[in-house]
Structure formats: structure tokens, C-alpha cells
């Protein structure tokens, strides 16, 4: 890895401090990267021209375009649109994993250049503090995909491009070092160079040659990929020489935030803080304290004075970064929730709100998002398109956060009391994380409450990083894949979608399944259940209960546990259940129409997260940030039926994956990620297009009516729509109509008057219910007064033991009122059903009378059991004839306890 560098005048050296090998033109002893070399560009940029972020972004794209690279549009930051192993795009190479990097799919261009917004939350706590850490950054990537028959370029050209780009923007290559290193990410790996200037790493030049296997072994891949990552925020930073990358990248946003917060900035403190932070990795609270101390010592000021000056600006920097991150996440379809990528979005939202609270800004997060969106819109028109959607989500999340905080105090106090009872003096970190994870309570709120409760709490300085790391990747289910070594099954249902019968050769058996060389049976997939039917083999008929696809093989499961080997090589005549197939087919196409209609009505953030087609009813799960209203459901249903009535042709065709993505975008993957270099496209006019392997009707009119039956929120951020189509929809409408007619007969009013009459009856019922409750309470009070007349004294304790005509809940209320309001020390009440309740005052408990122990013993006489708290307990038993004996024993046990 040295030919081109030598040609350009670079020599190999070894860093005397870190021991890494690096290349430089001028002779030097250190590698050029912090902490071996300090930042020397702050206040003294190496370029004459100052680039803002958009300026350097456009310069980067144009530079590589002029050198034969095709610019491509940025990909969404939500990586799950085309892959199922990570949630968010962490680098531009993520755009091409795993399909392009595996060699299965052609790249969208070759070579190409892209300015890709990327999100990494592994250093979220450092954002704002160090001057260089970001949750959202723009990775400039130029990529070349080299295959054995198509060599584009490799190491020499990549190094030359980097060398020339530095010169192009005015950096003298003599100031650059190329550090030899190794890179791994997204399942791939390879050697790399880290390119540094004046202490800051600006780019990484990676030469991907390996795939990382599940057992961590490395397997060489046929495709050799040039994967470069130019940190465009850092290029803007070094060209301006500002104290931090934040000032250089989104200066207008920061300036506005400073005005709103009325912050006076000490440029010397920011400059020194960034320079010292550049020499450190801030990973723990101890690291942060060390950073503060070093900067304070260098400036000759107390640490408290430094914190008072630096912390507000750190919060402003983090807010500017976080709001940019949120703008991309929400515009690209992330819905805040308690799971997956939605959890990460909510984490950033709530952290940003906390930072705003600490600055005591009167503006809401919505107001700050408006400032950020105004800054982003000129460069990213897609953010302008989703402007209102972003604001709607932020407003809703702010309301939810306030509710969380209101509920949080009770939960935290309960947690603290639990630890106090166990004799602990501090809330452990894992509990702090659980309170945030399960209840959304930020650690800062926990600390405030803990201080008020005189309880210790230390918030880890990397708290949000720890939380984010738990949620950054999809948890992989441990499965043992089934491998069948047979030729690929020919899928006749694509070629002959209207056929019901076929002949095929039996080529294998697996468990209770038959493998054919070809089949009309649709195997379960994409939420569509499999076909069912019959396989006739000679004189035998086998029922196919289920067809499943294992790799490229279709396995026809039968009702016979073990199939005879003699079946192999015989001919089978298959017949599918056509009515079932058509019912499922109509439901599948209807699903596409409902998704399309929902996107029209609710917004194009709507994304399918799951589906299950059925015969009588189907369901579709959609990502949405709030409940779908009745009006919206009616609009979706009406629009879906209009699509049916228009009788739009449903086209299906196979297209190369990269061409399909280029033509239609990632909307193709509404139904989930589809494998393969060629994908089957289902296109319904101009209203919907998806990559889908399911069966579909030839035109929408074949579906029949669509009836949405109900909606429910199945999890945070996901709405489920249940619907019926065709004959099942008609039956559903008839059922609803019948219910309305029968209900109207009960009320003896016309159907149209049902809502008004039902409301009147409900109000009357509620009024009667409250009246009954009031009367019951009066009766209970009378019973209590009557019971009080039967008070006895045992020692100096007031005791009541009686059989009452009351249910368990009434008995509990009576016992509590007697002990709390009427000052009775011990109350034992029984009813004729064998239920028993006891209550005792604090005075009785201090004298050793705990009713939970007492009731436990008394319930044994009834042949049952009981328990509860020392002040209130209950029990029961079937031996109701012994209830008088229970009262006698109660008095004896109390007397014995007092004597003891």
C-alpha cells in the first residue's frame, strides 16, 4: 500500500507516540492525528477560502463529477428501507450493503459520489462538549465497485483523488498525513488510510475486501470496493478555523440560539476547550472532569467559572446538532416510539427538551425545529416537503414528554422507597437506565427528586450513549436454518396465475413435505397464507395443508407424518383450492390499495410494518405517530373503493433491483425487504408500486367492495387497520346493519336516532349508578354505626368481631373506616359465604397484633387461606358452618398475643 504515495512524494514513518505507521511528504515524528498532534487550525485555517457546509458539500460533489463519478441522491437515513440488520445509516457504504457489496446487485452508478447524511449515537453525550462530535454528519463518499470483469480503480487512484482534493480546496498536501489502519463496519472490512491535517482526521480511505461472518471470521469477497468517507463538517471547520465544527457547520442556527438564550460567548474558552478536547476521548465522567480541569488550568480560572461559561454553549451546540438529526429522521419516515429506530428518535427529542429546559428558553422544541428546518430547506427540498409533518410530530412528542414527567415523580419516589427499605443509599445505574427505558424518565428528573428525598444519585456522563447502544441494532433471533439440496422449484403461479391444476415430478421428501420440480401452490410469504389443495399420486390423494418456501425450494406439507420413499420420481397431479386462492388474492391487492389510500390521507410518512391476509378479514400495520380518527378512516375507505371502481390494471414484471430502485425509489419495499438481484414489481396505475411476490388480481375492479372494520394501536407508533373485501365485506356491512336494526328495536326508535337515544340512556344509567353508589355508602355508614355499638375491650384495645351481610369489597371498606375513622383498634368481619376481612390500627400493630397473621390462622378454620398487609388482610374458606367458631378464635388469639 505505498506505490502512489511514494509517487506523490510521501515517505513512511512510525509515530513516536502511538506507534502507528503513517505517510507524509515532510519528515515528521508524529502521525498528525490527535492526541499525538494538537489542533493547530483553530484561528489559523490552512485554506484561504472559507467553506460553509453546503459550500464544501457542493465542491466535493462537483470535484468528483468532473473526474467521472456520477452524483447520486442521498439515501434516507432510515436504513431499514432496504436492509434488516441496522436501523439507521451510519456511513455512505450502508447505502450499498448488503445487496451491492455482496455482488448480487449492480450499484446505481460506478463510480459514484454522494453526500450522505449519516447518524451515529455512540457518542451522543460528547456532542457539544468536544467541538467535533456529532449525532448527524454529512459523509462525502466516492465509491468504486471493482469486479473481476470490470476494474474501475483501486488504491492508487483513491489516494491521488484525496491528495488532489486537498490541493483543490487550498490545503497544502505537505500538511497531510496518511495513517495506515483497518476498518470494519456493516458486515464488511478492509485496510484503510486515515487522512489528517493539523491534528484533525478529515477523511478515511477504505479498501473493502472482506465480509465479516457471524463467527467473526473474515471471508474474501469477489467485489473489491473503494469506500471513502470525507467528513464534510470537518472540512468546513478546518477551512474556517472556528472554535468548533458546530460553528462552521450550522452557524446561523447557533447564532439564533445564542440570541434567544442571551448568552455572551467567551471565544477563548471555546477555543481552548476544543483544542484540549481534541487531545482526549471523553468516555466517562472522570474524563469530563479531567477535560474541565485541564482547560481551567490553562486559562488560569476556577473550574466552576469555566463550567458556567462553557456549559450553556455546549447545550446550544448539542441542540443545533440534535435538531438537525431529528429533521432528517422525521423527514425520512422515523416515527418516535418505544421501540427500534423510533426509540432513538424519542431519545434525541427528550434529550433536546432537557437541554432547552436547562437553558431556561421560553421557546419550545417546535420553535427551535422551525429555525433548523429554515436552515436545511434550501439544500434539502425533501425537508421542506415534510415541514408540517415534522412540526406535528414534535408538538405531539412535547405533550407526551410533559405527561411522562408528571407520572415520573410517583414512580421515582416508589423506587427510592424500595431501595431505602433494602438499606441502600444510592440508585444504581442499571435502575436509572430502566427508569428511562421503561418509563421515559430522564436521569436529570430522577436526580432532582432524589435530592429532595435526600438520596444519592450519580448520573453516568455517558448515560445517553449507554441507552442508545442498547437500541441501535435489530436483535437477531437465533434460528437454525433448514437447508434442502434440491434444484430450484419452478413457480407456475407467476406464469399461469389463472390455472388450478398442474402436473409435476416428485424430486424429494422432507419430514411430512413433498418437493416437486414445479408447482402452482403459492407458499406463504409477505403476509399471504399459502395455498391449500390436493396432490394426487396414482390412486392416492394427499391433502396439502401448507406450502412453505425454504430458499428456492417449495415444500408441500401434508397430513401424513412420514411419507414413503417410493414416492420419489413419481408424477403428482396438483389441484389448488381456487376459492381460497382468489379470496387471498383479492385481500392482497386490497392491502396495496389501503396503504396507497392511507399515504394520501395521512401523509407519505406512512409505512407498512406488517400485514396478514385472510379469507374473511385481513390486517395491515402502518407506522403513524397518532391514532387514526374516524374521519380519516372513512376517507381511506372511500379512496380505496374509488381505486376499485376505477378498475385500474395491476401490472407485474421482474426488474433488476438497481434499476427498479432508481426508477421508483425505496417505496418499493413497503412490504419489507425483498431478496434477489431481480425483484417482482407490482404496479397499480400511478397510485402504488411495490416489490411483492404475492398473487394479485388483473385489475382492481376484481377485488369488490372494501370495508374497514376497526383500527387499534398495537404498539407505540404503529396503527393496525383490519378490513374485509369482496363477499366478506358485504357480510360485514350486513352484520353491522343487522346490529343497528336490532338495537333500534330494543330502544324502539329509528336507526338514525340511535346515537342521541343511546347517549341519553347512558347519561341516565351513569346517574343511577352514582345514586346507587351514594346509597350504598349511606347504608355502609349505617352498618358501621350499628357495628360500633358492639365494640368490646380487650386489654386497652377496642375490638369489633361480627358477621355482616356484605360482599368482600364492602367488608374491606367497612373495616378500614372502623379502624381509621372510628378509632377501632382491631376489626374482624365475616359473611355467610365464608369471606373474612381484618383491619388493625398502628396502636394494635405496635402491640403485636398484625391482622395478616391473624387472618391467615382464622382462615384455616374455614378450610382456606388468607393474607395481606399488617393493617389490612382478607381470607376465605368453604366451611361456612364454622364462622361463629372463627369469631371466638379471633378473640382468643388477640388475648394470647397481648399476654405474650
TrEMBL record:
Q: Which EC numbers characterise this protein's activity in its record? A: 6.1.1.7
Which SMART domains does this one have? Answer: tRNA_SAD (SM00863)
Q: In its keyword annotation, does this UniProt entry include Zinc?
A: yes
Q: Which residues form a coiled coil?
A: 765-792
Q: How is the cofactor bound?
A: Binds 1 zinc ion per subunit.
Q: What does this protein do?
A: Catalyzes the attachment of alanine to tRNA(Ala) in a two-step reaction: alanine is first activated by ATP to form Ala-AMP and then transferred to the acceptor end of tRNA(Ala). Also edits incorrectly charged Ser-tRNA(Ala) and Gly-tRNA(Ala) via its editing domain.
This one is known as: Alanine--tRNA ligase
Amino acid at each position: 500500500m505505498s506505490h502512489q504515495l511514494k509517487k506523490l512524494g510521501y515517505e513512511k514513518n512510525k509515530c513516536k507516540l502511538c506507534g502507528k505507521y503513517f505517510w507524509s511528504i515532510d519528515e515528521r515524528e508524529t502521525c498528525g492525528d490527535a492526541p499525538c498532534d494538537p489542533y493547530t487550525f483553530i484561528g489559523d485555517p490552512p485554506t484561504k477560502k472559507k467553506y460553509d457546509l453546503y459550500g464544501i458539500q457542493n465542491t466535493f460533489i462537483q470535484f468528483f463529477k468532473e473526474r467521472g463519478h456520477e452524483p447520486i441522491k442521498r439515501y434516507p437515513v432510515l436504513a431499514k428501507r432496504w436492509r434488516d440488520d441496522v436501523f439507521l445509516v451510519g456511513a455512505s457504504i450502508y447505502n450499498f450493503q448488503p445487496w451491492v457489496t455482496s455482488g448480487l446487485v449492480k450499484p446505481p452508478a460506478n463510480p459514484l459520489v454522494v453526500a450522505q447524511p449519516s447518524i451515529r449515537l455512540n457518542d451522543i453525550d460528547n456532542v457539544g462538549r468536544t467541538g467535533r462530535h456529532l449525532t448527524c454528519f454529512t459523509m462525502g463518499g466516492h465509491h468504486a465497485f471493482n469486479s473481476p470483469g470490470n476494474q474501475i480503480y483501486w488504491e492508487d487512484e483513491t489516494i491521488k483523488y484525496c491528495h488532489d482534493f486537498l490541493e483543490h480546496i487550498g490545503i497544502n498536501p505537505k500538511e497531510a498525513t496518511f495513517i495506515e489502519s483497518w476498518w470494519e463496519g456493516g458486515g464488511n472490512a478492509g485496510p484503510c488510510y486515515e487522512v489528517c491535517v493539523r491534528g484533525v482526521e478529515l477523511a478515511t480511505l477504505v479498501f473493502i475486501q472482506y465480509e465479516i461472518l457471524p463467527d467473526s471470521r473474515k471471508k474474501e469477497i469477489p467485489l473489491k470496493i473503494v469506500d471513502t468517507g470525507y467528513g464534510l463538517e470537518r472540512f468546513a471547520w478546518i477551512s474556517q478555523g472556528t472554535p468548533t465544527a458546530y460553528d462552521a457547520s450550522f452557524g446561523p442556527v447557533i447564532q439564533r440560539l445564542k440570541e434567544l438564550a442571551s448568552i455572551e460567548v467567551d471565544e477563548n474558552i471555546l477555543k481552548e476547550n476544543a483544542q484540549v478536547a481534541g487531545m482526549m476521548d471523553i468516555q466517562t465522567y472522570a474524563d469530563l472532569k479531567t477535560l474541565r480541569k485541564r482547560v481551567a488550568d490553562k486559562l488560569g480560572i476556577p473550574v466552576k467559572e469555566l463550567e458556567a461559561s462553557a456549559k450553556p454553549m455546549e447545550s446550544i451546540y448539542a441542540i443545533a446538532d440534535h435538531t438537525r438529526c431529528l429533521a432528517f429522521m422525521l423527514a425520512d419516515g422515523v416515527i418516535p416510539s418505544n421501540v427500534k429506530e423510533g426509540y432513538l428518535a424519542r431519545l434525541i427529542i427528550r434529550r433536546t427538551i432537557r437541554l432547552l429546559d436547562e437553558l431556561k428558553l421560553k421557546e419550545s422544541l417546535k420553535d427551535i425545529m422551525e429555525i433548523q428546518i429554515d436552515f436545511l430547506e434550501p439544500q434539502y427540498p425533501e425537508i421542506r416537503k415534510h415541514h408540517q409533518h415534522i412540526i406535528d410530530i414534535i408538538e405531539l412528542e412535547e405533550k407526551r414528554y410533559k405527561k411522562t414527567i408528571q407520572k415520573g415523580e410517583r414512580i421515582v419516589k416508589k423506587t427510592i422507597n424500595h431501595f431505602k427499605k433494602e438499606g441502600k443509599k444510592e440508585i444504581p445505574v442499571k435502575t436509572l437506565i430502566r427508569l428511562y427505558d421503561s418509563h421515559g424518565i430522564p436521569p436529570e428528573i430522577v436526580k432532582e427528586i432524589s435530592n429532595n428525598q435526600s438520596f444519592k444519585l450519580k448520573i453516568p456522563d455517558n448515560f445517553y450513549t449507554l441507552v442508545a447502544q442498547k437500541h441501535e441494532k435489530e436483535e437477531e433471533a437465533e434460528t437454525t436454518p433448514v437447508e434442502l439440496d434440491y434444484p430450484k422449484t419452478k413457480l407456475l403461479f407467476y406464469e399461469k396465475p389463472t390455472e388450478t391444476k398442474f402436473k409435476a415430478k416428485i424430486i424429494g421428501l422432507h419430514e411430512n413435505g413433498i418437493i416437486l420440480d414445479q408447482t402452482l401452490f403459492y407458499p406463504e410469504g409477505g403476509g399471504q397464507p399459502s395455498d391449500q389443495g390436493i396432490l394426487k399420486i396414482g390412486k392416492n390423494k394427499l391433502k396439502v395443508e401448507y406450502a412453505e418456501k425454504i430458499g428456492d425450494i417449495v415444500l408441500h406439507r401434508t397430513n401424513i407424518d412420514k411419507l414413503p420413499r417410493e414416492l420419489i420420481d413419481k408424477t403428482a397431479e396438483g389441484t389448488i383450492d381456487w376459492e381460497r386462492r382468489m379470496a387471498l388474492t383479492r385481500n392482497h391487492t386490497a392491502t396495496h390499495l389501503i396503504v396507497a389510500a392511507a399515504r394520501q390521507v395521512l401523509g407519505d410518512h406512512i409505512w407498512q410494518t406488517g400485514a396478514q391476509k385472510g379469507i374473511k378479514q385481513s390486517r395491515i400495520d402502518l407506522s403513524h405517530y397518532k391514532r387514526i380518527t374516524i374521519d380519516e378512516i372513512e376517507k381511506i375507505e372511500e379512496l380505496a373503493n374509488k381505486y376499485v371502481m376505477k378498475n385500474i390494471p395491476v401490472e407485474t414484471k421482474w426488474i433488476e433491483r438497481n434499476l427498479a430502485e432508481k426508477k421508483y425509489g425505496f417505496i418499493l419495499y413497503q412490504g419489507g425487504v425483498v431478496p434477489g438481484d431481480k425483484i417482482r414489481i407490482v404496479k397499480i396505475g400511478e397510485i402504488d408500486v411495490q416489490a411483492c411476490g404475492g398473487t394479485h388480481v388483473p385489475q382492481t375492479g376484481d377485488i369488490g367492495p372494501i370495508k374497514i372494520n376497526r383500527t387499534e394501536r398495537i404498539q407505540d407508533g404503529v396503527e393496525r387497520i383490519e378490513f374485509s373485501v369482496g363477499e366478506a365485506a358485504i357480510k360485514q356491512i350486513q352484520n353491522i346493519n343487522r346490529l343497528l336494526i336490532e338495537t333500534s328495536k330494543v330502544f324502539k326508535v329509528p336507526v338514525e336516532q340511535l346515537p342521541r337515544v343511546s347517549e341519553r340512556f347512558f347519561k341516565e344509567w351513569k346517574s343511577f349508578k352514582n345514586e346507587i353508589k351514594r346509597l350504598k355508602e349511606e347504608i355502609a355508614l349505617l352498618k358501621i354505626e350499628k357495628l360500633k355499638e358492639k365494640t368490646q375491650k380487650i386489654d386497652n384495645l377496642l375490638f369489633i368481631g361480627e358477621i355482616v351481610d356484605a360482599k368482600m369489597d364492602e367488608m374491606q371498606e367497612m373495616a378500614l373506616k372502623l379502624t381509621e375513622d372510628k378509632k377501632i383498634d382491631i376489626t374482624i368481619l365475616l359473611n355467610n359465604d365464608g369471606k373474612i376481612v381484618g383491619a388493625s390500627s398502628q396502636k394494635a400493630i405496635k402491640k403485636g397484633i398484625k391482622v395478616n397473621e391473624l387472618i391467615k390462622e382464622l382462615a384455616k378454620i374455614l378450610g382456606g387461606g388468607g393474607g395481606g398487609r399488617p393493617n389490612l388482610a382478607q381470607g376465605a374458606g368453604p366451611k361456612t358452618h364454622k364462622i361463629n367458631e372463627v369469631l371466638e378464635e379471633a378473640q382468643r388469639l388477640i388475648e394470647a398475643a397481648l399476654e405474650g
